[in-house]
């Protein structure tokens, strides 16, 4: 469905070069927003932004490693110069490293790998919040959605400890933001997707996915568009009184 629910809004989506982030960026465009796409992979994000621009949408893009505060600050300055102040931030970028197709057991995990996952999945969200929230507070309006996972509150065999820990931390971070920023007209919510068909899942066996399908009341995996719809709902005026919440997009899998 195409409508103008986000007309006049300026949205930043991290990890917008592919998977869920690309779907989120497109849906905001279709809902009338100007959209800034950020990704560490310049080729991918340029391609996504180019396709959206060719379709007539107002977009800007920047290559940025969300783990770097300097990258985030420079990217925000650049895209805000093109599109105007960002009022809606979707902290979607995230990684889940695998070794030979499997998550690293905690007793073999390199400290550098732990640090890198924390730097991207958790500190990356802080970095963009730190850069963009002062403007939201000043303008007394802002909408933030942080990407958690069902792995933030349930044990999942297919991910490693750093991933689960960062996705749990994102929930605490989101609730804190909601409490601290609510008085300034800024809401913060988190999404907790279950298994969604994206490139991040390419190392998971068909059998492992079938087990999840069998345990899921809706009997299928999710799509990036379904996560995008939840993000758009949480930043639309339909959600003006919703803050500090974690919304599962998981077909009923692992109801916790
Ligand atoms: N696919 C799934 O089943 C689920 C995904 N999630 C979360 O959703 C988010 C998106 O996941 P997917 O779309 O599946 O992943 P994906 O791997 O398909 O896309 C992630 C994007 O983030 C970018 N990225 C990675 N590191 C970055 C960095 N340091 N700085 C900026 N960009 C970076 C990548 O280049 C890529 O374009 C992640 O936070 C992930 O943890 C949560 C639950 C389930
Ligand atoms: C994309 C990450 C690694 C991932 C993979 C699978 C699930 C799941 O089965 O629910 C997740 O929640 C994830 O975050």
TrEMBL record:
Q: Which SUPFAM superfamilies match?
A: NAD(P)-binding Rossmann-fold domains
Domain called Ketoreductase: residue spans: 9-194
Q: Where are the transmembrane segments?
A: 144-165
SMART domains reported in the protein's UniProt record: PKS_KR
InterPro entries assigned to the protein according to its UniProt record, in alphabetical order? KR_dom (IPR057326), NAD(P)-bd_dom_sf (IPR036291), Sc_DH/Rdtase_CS (IPR020904), SDR_fam (IPR002347)
Q: Which UniProt keywords apply?
A: Membrane, Oxidoreductase, Transmembrane, Transmembrane helix
Q: Which family does the record assign?
A: Belongs to the short-chain dehydrogenases/reductases (SDR) family.
Q: What is this protein called?
A: SDR family oxidoreductase
User: What organism is this sequence from?
Assistant: Pseudomonas siliginis
